[in-house]
Each structure stands twice: as structure tokens, then as C-alpha cells.
């Protein structure tokens, strides 16, 4: 039996959007807890699928409470669920994320959100030396059948310090993040096949993860940095 996102989750968030205050939330907390319980079943089913073809050591379902201390938006509650999955470190790098939000705002994401300074420099140096392998992965038929045009992430304006602006791989070198995202409509999210759609997409990212993990666990000479 397929595990799916229940309609009750989106119904709750649509009501919360119109009543985003502590009094309303406290009065309707049982409804929230029921929705949260069902969503955690879904997130854990995604985890089970991932561990059939990858090695993921942790699922984190983010809390609904917003940190408003440094935000102009003082609404106390998020109107979405977010779940992240970390691959087993140090030998495997990268992670997965599933965002569930009504009004066609749901998406999945994968890749490297905020690489550590040392990791980012190691990636850039790899592309500086040879960008043929990463380009072969990004242009492959299987990869592009799902992730074409979904490669995003912040970039520096021209070139990072120490790299020439006219480098053939400058489009990759100037990135500060290496993220892929794919958006879904409410109808797609609530469909029974959505969990399989997620798994198919996450399977397709593996060549990218395998390459990046190899880069980040070796030095520029290919010597392993881990035991």
C-alpha cells in the first residue's frame, strides 16, 4: 500500500494562513498534531525508500514554529512542513529535502545548500582542473529527464578570488551553492504516486552525489582524506 500526503495537511495549512496567531493555533492544536503525525509517516516512508538505494543516517522534520527574532515577518507559524535527509558522513556528501505547502508551493530539493568554505574551495579547484566529468553527468539523458533546468544556487557576480573570469568552467566555479529543485502542484502532491515520483527523482541525482562525494573525500591528487 502506497503512503501518501493526506488532504487534511493542506486543509489545515490553508486555515492557518488565514488565522496565523497563537490563540487560533492553540485552539486547533489537536488538528495540527494529527496532520503532523500523518506527515511524519510520509517522511519516514521517503526515508525507507532512500535507504534502499542510498545511505541516509538522519531524518529531520522541522518544527512549525518560526524564529521571528530577526525577521520583519512576525507571523508565529510556518504554513508548510519541511523534512531533510542527511547522507552518511564523512564518506557520503549531500542531502535531500521535501517541502510540503499548499497553493502549488511544494517542492523537493537536493544537493549542497551551504558548503563549508573548505569544501567549496575544493569543488571549485576540481572544476578548475577538469570539468569534463561533471558536465557529462549534468548533460546525461537519464539525469536531464528529471533535473534539466532545475540547477539553481547563489553565485558570485564575476569570479571567486584566485580564479580567472574567462575560465571555461566559470559558470560552475562561481556558484556558491549546488542545488537542484523540482516543484509540484497540489494535485501532484496529493496523488498516491507522489512518493514514487520523489524516489525516482532522488535516484536520478546519485551520479552527481557519487562524483561530488569522491571529490570531497580526496585531495587534488586523488588521495583519500578519510580512513
UniProtKB/TrEMBL annotation:
Top-level lineage group: Bacteria
Record InterPro entries: CHP02453, UCP028451
The protein's name: DUF2461 domain-containing protein
Organism ancestry: Bacteria, Pseudomonadati, Bacteroidota, Flavobacteriia, Flavobacteriales
Amino acid at each position: 500500500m502506497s503512503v501518501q500526503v493526506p488532504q487534511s495537511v493542506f486543509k489545515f495549512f490553508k486555515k492557518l494562513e488565514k488565522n496565523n496567531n497563537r490563540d487560533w493555533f492553540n485552539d486547533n492544536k489537536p488538528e495540527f498534531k494529527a496532520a503532523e503525525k500523518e506527515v511524519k509517516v510520509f517522511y519516514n516512508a521517503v526515508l525507507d525508500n532512500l535507504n534502499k538505494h542510498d545511505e541516509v543516517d538522519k531524518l529531520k522534520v522541522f518544527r512549525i514554529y518560526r524564529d521571528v527574532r530577526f525577521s520583519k515577518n512576525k507571523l508565529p507559524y510556518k504554513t508548510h512542513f519541511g523534512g531533510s535527509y542527511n547522507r552518511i558522513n564523512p564518506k557520503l556528501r549531500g542531502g535531500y529535502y521535501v517541502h510540503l505547502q499548499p497553493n502549488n508551493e511544494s517542492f523537493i530539493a537536493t544537493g549542497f545548500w551551504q558548503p563549508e568554505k573548505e569544501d567549496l574551495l575544493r569543488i571549485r579547484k576540481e572544476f578548475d582542473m577538469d570539468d569534463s566529468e561533471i558536465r557529462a553527468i549534468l548533460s546525461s539523458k537519464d539525469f536531464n529527464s528529471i533535473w534539466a533546468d532545475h540547477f539553481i544556487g547563489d553565485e558570485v557576480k564575476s569570479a571567486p578570488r584566485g580564479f580567472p573570469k574567462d575560465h571555461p568552467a566559470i559558470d560552475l566555479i562561481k556558484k556558491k551553492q549546488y542545488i537542484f529543485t523540482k516543484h509540484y502542484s497540489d494535485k501532484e502532491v496529493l496523488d498516491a504516486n507522489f512518493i514514487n515520483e520523489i524516489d525516482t527523482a532522488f535516484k536520478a541525482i546519485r551520479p552527481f552525489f557519487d562524483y561530488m562525494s569522491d571529490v570531497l573525500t580526496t585531495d587534488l591528487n586523488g588521495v583519500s582524506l578519510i580512513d
